[in-house]
User: Which sequence fits this backbone?
């Protein structure tokens, strides 16, 4: 199946750059990788969020068809990994849109935001209020941690994430915040409960459901099993600030000498991707004008995947979190909360490569893409998280010609979540978002 030319054209219209700040602080990446061992295992997370975690509503608007409640609470991630969230994102905000009259039971769907879906108006207009009319279903709209107004104005251009690490912090925060809201809704007597989202929102909803200890319906729209392909082979890869990432990777040895050793995902998908691109030129490369050098950019990861598997002694799908002493929750939380100091973040953290030639070495772009695949798969691959309790309650909606969410060379959700259903729409990412909202509902 080819890729949508509309997806490619739309991406070219946008001037937004991703990851303009680079990889993020090495000590933050280390803390995130340690916390991933906890958040990726549902059993370890059972006691992380108390049943009576405080949630507040501070404003209510009455409309002809519904009541709209504004609410907030402190993100549990601030307690578990102090200082990892920007101060502006410590307070999680949501809107709860409730019908004036229930048709049957009191069903609520939590909607997580897609890329660029700031505030609540888009989800409220296109999804929540129509769902009240069509199904008598309430909606709870959770704001993304990095989409708070003040933070956008100060640090962001449109919907860009400043650092690669921000995406991982966002995922961890949304998993825990969704748990807070699901428990709050359950305690208020709402039922049944479900989750959904479009694009990045669908992906984040999928992550959240892996952590929920009960059967729950999930409808992720226009998302897939990992973010690694999104930022390395999809059209969004052209928006990544590779020059800054390559520069930081070249001059700071901590990335290739320490952080790589913390990755526990064995790289099976990246190995498959390297094999595929070695044999074929994907149509998207032609549409985007990718050079021959870029087509070879994942060659190193074929080797890296094998080395990681041998070095860690891990089997793909062998369970999240790995083995060893790090499996103990108290030990892991201690490591995470130490802000990386227990992870030998010593002088090596600040040591620079003095040879300027390394910044322009021919393999630098390939190495940076390889590193991106590794850290993305570590923190975003669904195989690194628990399988949802009841996969038969999952309906995945995908676009056949999606150029934003490449499916070639990565494990499918059916392989990771046996029993889930996948439905395909004609067209690409943009056309599906513009014209298939009724299908998503």
Assistant:
């Amino acid at each position: 199946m080819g890729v949508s030319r509309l997806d490619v054209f739309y991406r070219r219209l946008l001037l937004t750059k991703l990851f303009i700040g680079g990889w993020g602080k090495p000590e933050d990446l280390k803390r995130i990788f340690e916390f991933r061992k906890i958040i990726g295992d549902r059993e370890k997370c059972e006691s992380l969020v108390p049943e009576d975690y405080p949630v507040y509503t501070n404003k209510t608007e009455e409309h002809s068809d519904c009541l709209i409640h504004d609410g907030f609470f402190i993100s549990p991630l601030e307690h578990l990994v102090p200082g990892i969230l920007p101060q502006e994102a410590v307070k999680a905000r949501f809107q709860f849109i409730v019908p004036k009259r229930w048709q049957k039971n009191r069903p609520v769907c939590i909607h997580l935001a897609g890329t660029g879906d700031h505030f609540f108006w888009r989800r409220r207009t296109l999804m929540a209020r129509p769902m009240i009319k069509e199904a008598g279903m309430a909606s709870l709209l959770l704001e993304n941690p990095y989409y708070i107004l003040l933070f956008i104005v100060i640090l962001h251009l449109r919907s860009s994430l400043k650092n690669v690490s921000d995406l991982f912090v966002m995922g961890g925060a949304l998993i825990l915040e969704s748990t807070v809201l699901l428990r709050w809704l359950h305690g208020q007597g709402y039922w049944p409960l479900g989750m959904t989202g479009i694009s990045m929102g669908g992906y984040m909803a999928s992550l959240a459901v892996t952590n929920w200890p009960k059967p729950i319906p999930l409808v992720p729209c226009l998302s897939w099993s990992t973010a690694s392909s999104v930022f390395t082979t999809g059209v969004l890869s052209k928006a990544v600030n590779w020059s800054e990432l390559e520069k930081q990777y070249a001059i700071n040895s901590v990335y290739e000498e320490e952080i790589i050793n913390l990755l526990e995902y064995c790289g099976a998908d990246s190995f498959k991707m390297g094999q595929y691109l070695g044999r074929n030129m994907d149509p998207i490369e032609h549409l985007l004008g990718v050079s021959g050098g870029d087509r070879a950019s994942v060659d190193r990861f074929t080797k890296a995947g094998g080395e990681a598997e041998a070095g860690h002694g891990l089997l793909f799908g062998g369970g999240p979190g790995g083995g060893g002493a790090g499996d103990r929750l108290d030990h892991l939380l201690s490591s995470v909360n130490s802000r990386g100091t227990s992870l030998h973040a010593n002088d090596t953290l600040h040591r620079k490569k003095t040879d300027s030639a390394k910044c322009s070495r021919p393999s630098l772009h390939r190495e940076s893409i390889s590193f991106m695949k590794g850290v993305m798969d570590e923190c975003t691959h669904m195989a690194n998280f628990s399988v949802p309790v009841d996969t038969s309650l999952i309906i995945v909606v995908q676009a056949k010609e999606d150029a934003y969410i490449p499916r070639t060379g990565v494990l499918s959700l059916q392989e990771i979540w046996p029993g889930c259903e996948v439905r395909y729409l004609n067209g690409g990412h943009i056309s599906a978002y513009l014209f298939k909202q009724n299908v998503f509902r």
In short: The mean pLDDT is 80. The longest strand covers residues 66-74.
